[in-house]
Amino acid sequence: MLLAGVIVAGCGHPPPIIIDNADSDCAWNQGGGDFKRASYTPLESSDIAGLLWTRDFKKRLTVEPTAAYGRILVPTTDRRLFVISSTDGSRLAVKKYKKVIVAPAVVSDSLAVLLVDGEKLIIENWISHQTLWEADLGGSFIEPLVMDGKVYWIDGKNLLRCYRLEDGVRIWDRKLDNHYSCTVTGSSAGVFLACDQGIIYCYETNSGQTKWIYDSGDRMRNPPVIAGDQLVFCCTEGKVGRLNAADGSPVWKTDLKSPIIAPPASDGQGVYLGTNDRYIYRLDFDSGDVIWRRKIGGPVKAGPTLTENLAIFVSIDYRAYFVDKNSGKILYRYETDGMLTTRPLVCDGKVLIAGEDRKLYCFDIAGEE
């Protein structure tokens, strides 16, 4: 059945399951541009107990895993999506696709949004593996956003599309004027897009109408990061800035004069980021001033992940760095057997890091109660 340009898999598919998340603190940590993606998760302790377990895969892990309700969804380069336990890494399920999943899975309860080789956007029940609906992407590799029962994505025709997640009913489309390669992000203030030329757009979530436009004056390759009612952005040439999400008005801009490939992260007190010339930073959230700077062993290609006391960075020097957020001191480092190019994630008191050495690493940082 064809519905508003979307293929619906058929009648009688099971409805989404609303999952009770009371015993898991990882549901917020979605890939695919979820509005809480680059925030932080409070933990009872940030004591580092070291490596807890590893899980070996047959192929490299180049796409960020997704933590959801005590489960980890891991796309691999051999066209598979593994569902594993966050407790011990044991395999719970696996599904093979016709082509490679090229972006992190986006999860909302039992529904997952998958980007398959830039050709298909597939919405399926990740528990039963039944497809609910799918849409043609036309050559787009930009990660979608799921928010408030809607899914937003950019297709190959440069359309920003908003559909109802549950059944694929079209809500609105918006023709875009510029070229985009950044993840779609959003909050109650709007849907945010950053184009390659460095312009940030905010659109109304329900209509797609433009709310405001901000021109940074520099090129961008990462979306703005949402921290409460504020946005933090970074430009490839080294500028980092903060805006009011409601109207796009600038608060500050700092020039680090270091090339930035990876997105920043913020907990509302600091802005944390790594650069291509092997430095990691904390900036003051209120002023943009540099609080600390540390040199590490290699360039940073993935954004950091934050806990209550830690900023966790990965680098292409094969190492993960667990850094004290206040002092910038490296408390613990772990060397793997391959480059680390995907953002760490936190689930149930554990930090999980995917490596290009075909391994998923799990570190225990919650400590003993």
Attribute tags:
369 residues; Methylamine Dehydrogenase, Chain H; 46% strand; 6-stranded antiparallel beta sheet; single chain; globular
Can I get a quick summary?
The protein is mainly β. Helices cover 0% and strands 46% of the residues.
Question: What is the fold-level CATH name, i.e. the topology?
Answer: Methylamine Dehydrogenase, Chain H
The CATH architecture can be given as 7 Propeller
Task: Please give the count of helices.
Answer: 0
CATH level 1 name: Mainly Beta
Query: Compute the gyration radius: what is it?
Result: 19 Å
CATH superfamily: YVTN repeat-like/Quinoprotein amine dehydrogenase
By DSSP, the count of extended strands is 35
Shape designation:
globular
Please give the domain count: 1
Distance between the termini: 53 Å
The poorly predicted ranges are: 27-36
Major sheet strand order: 1-2-12-11-10-9
Fraction of residues in β-strands: over 45%
